[in-house]
Design a protein that fits this description.
With 443 residues, the protein is an alpha/beta fold. It is built from 16 helices and 20 strands.
């Protein structure tokens, strides 16, 4: 059998190796350049490849596998459809070969990486051999080579949009829903439909965990637990004043006390609650919750403490690359703020962002390509306490001059980084470097 794989990123590499291990003749087509390390990997496994798509993709091919980031409007996909070639998404190809009886699938607009990582951490601390990855960075197909007690996969809307086969998950989680990747999906409705597949394709007896506010949008069926800060007349995770409880079939049990975790923000309390609930649904004892949470560090650039200078805390939320994520960060972090906003946009409406800035922040510092559009939104909201900065150094300097003791300087740009940095990670690292150099110089 001959298989072509479109894309040579992490998921494409994983698909190519899995197809090779299953006995197929594999050809990889990558639109951009392929790194030397990946070329070496392909050569070692006798996998042919090309840089720049060509007709070689279709030479004698029986099936085309699509890695996660290939957009539906890709010319090579249209060509494959015209030719009637079988096209298979990453999940449909990889999931049947994942070696575990306990699969947990996690998606959502924000928080899915934290929840995936935290569930993996808890299960490993509980003594289960656990694999955690997916869109998080380790391809789903990686977990096909050895047996696991449990596997936790972060799934993107891109991956789920092409999923048609049963995911066999015991627990499926949608952390939250907010507009994102509309340019890829074509509409918010299509985006939601893709996300909701994590529920519709779970094991028939599997549990779903969602936000109560997303219930009407998702219209889920089967066994569902909703997370809410108000008591609901259904199975729920209740976020109380000081602790979270799981109410299941009328029985209430404590999940954790909020001071059991060091993660910043009420949104992270929700992440911890969903994670512990998922683990409990697998039958794992979570009574020693402090031990299970111990040692877990927040993922970099997701409301990460960058340090305190002159009584002002600096927080790196560079992963806040859409409006919903930044609004969540502002509302979930206590205290008045100076917020650094801007970068490359996704075509979003900044009006809700401006209203949240007006409520939560004393000042905004604007950078990047979207600075003008964000400024216009702030002006329409009658928020005039903003300043423009040419780069991150100037943004931090301006923020430092504006912030008073007890306040927070929050980098949560609501935009991608690609106008100024190669990734949100590089942007966050630069912010942290500037802050820590200031702290070192001061002390």
């Amino acid at each position: 059998m001959k298989i072509s794989v479109i894309g040579a990123g992490v998921s494409g590499q994983g698909l190519a190796l899995l197809a090779h291990e299953l006995g197929a003749e594999v050809f990889v087509s990558e639109k951009k350049n392929i790194s030397d390390d990946v070329k070496k990997l392909f050569a070692e496994n006798k996998i042919a490849y090309e840089e720049g798509h060509s007709q070689k993709v279709f030479d004698g091919v029986d099936e085309i596998l699509i890695s996660s980031g290939i957009p539906p409007q890709s010319e090579i996909l249209h060509e494959a459809e015209k030719r009637g070639v079988k096209i298979t998404g990453e999940l449909d190809y990889a999931i049947p070969h994942v070696k575990t009886q306990n699969l947990i699938c996690v998606t959502g607009s924000n928080g899915k990486s934290t929840v995936t990582s935290l569930i993996g951490h808890i299960l490993n601390k509980a003594g289960l051999k656990t694999g955690a990855g997916g869109n998080l960075g380790t391809a789903s197909s990686t977990f096909t080579r050895e047996n696991f007690d449990a596997v936790v996969l972060e799934l993107s809307s891109f991956q789920l949009a092409r999923a048609t086969q049963n995911l066999h998950s015991k627990v499926a989680i949608i952390t939250n829903l907010a507009p994102d990747h509309i340019d890829w999906h074509g509409s918010y409705e299509n985006y939601v439909e893709a996300k909701s597949r994590v529920l519709s394709l779970r094991d028939p007896e599997g549990w779903g965990i969602i936000q109560a506010r997303d219930y009407d949008t998702l219209k889920p069926s089967g066994k569902i637990i909703v997370l809410s800060w108000e008591r609901e007349n259904k199975n729920q995770i209740f976020m109380g004043e000081n602790e979270a409880e799981l109410i299941l079939d009328g029985v209430t049990q404590k999940l954790f006390a909020y001071d059991d975790t060091t993660l910043i923000g009420s949104h992270n309390l929700e992440n911890v609650a969903m994670s512990l609930c998922a683990v409990k649904l697998l039958g794992v004892d979570i009574s020693n919750v402090k031990f299970l949470l111990e040692g877990f560090k927040p993922l970099p650039h997701r409301c990460e403490d960058a340090g305190t200078l002159d009584g002002v805390q600096y927080i790196d939320d560079s992963k806040g690359t859409n409006v919903a994520a930044t609004i969540t960060a502002m509302k979930c972090i206590k205290g008045r703020k100076v917020i650094i906003l801007g970068g490359q946009g996704k075509g979003e409406d900044y009006s809700p962002l401006a209203e949240a800035v007006k409520d939560e922040c004393d000042y905004a510092v604007l950078i990047g390509e979207e600075a003008g559009k964000i400024q216009s939104a702030l002006e329409r909201a009658n928020f005039m306490n903003f300043k423009r900065a040419l780069n991150m150094e100037e943004a931090v300097n301006i923020s430092q001059s504006l912030a008073k003791p007890g306040m927070v300087v929050l980098l949560s740009p609501a935009c991608t980084s690609w106008d100024m940095y190669k990734s949100y990670k590089a942007r966050g690292e630069h912010f942290c470097k500037i802050v820590r150099e200031k702290i070192e110089k001061k002390y």
